[in-house]
Specification:
There is one protein chain. A three-stranded antiparallel sheet has the order 1-3-2. Strands 4-5 form a two-stranded antiparallel sheet. It is about 60% helix and about 10% strand. With about 160 residues, it is mainly alpha-helical.
Length: about 160
Amino acid sequence: MTPNDKRQYSPQMIEDASAWVKLCRAQLAVSARIFRRLPAKTSLAQFAVLEALDYLGPMYQREISEKILKSTGNVTVVVDALERAGLAVRQRSQEDRRKMVVNITDKGRRWLYEILPVYTQALAEEFAVLTSEEKVELGRLCRILGYGARVGTDDVGDDVAGGEG
C-alpha cells in the first residue's frame, strides 16, 4: 500500500481529515478576503494585537499570544512593528522588572478605531452567507473543537482565547 492509498485509512480518519481541511480552507479564505479590505501595510495580526490591548488593557507578550492564538515569536515580530510605527509601546513591569508589558498608544487607538469599521463591515459581509442559526451552530461547534470537549460539560468554559465563545 502507498501513502495515497485510502484503504489504509478508516472512514472516520478520512471524515476527520476532510472536516479539518474544510475548516482550515474556510478560515484562510475568509481571512484573506478581510485582509484585502484593510488599509495597505495592515496585517490581521497587528489588528488583533491592538484590538486585544484596547479591549483587555496592557499585557505581557505571552498573554497576547494566548489571546490572539499566535506564537510568542510571531507576537514579538508584530509588537516590534507596532512599536516602530508608534502604535504600541513596551514598558517594564512594575510587578516583575524582568518582564515587559505591552500597551496600545493613543496613536494606536486612533489607528484601530479608523480600521474597526472596515473590519466589522468585512466580517458582516463574510458571515452574511450564514443564517443566525448557522452562526450560533458554527460558534458552538468551534467551542467544542477549541476545548476538545462537548459544550455543556464541565470541561468547556465560556470563552476561547479571551473572546466570547
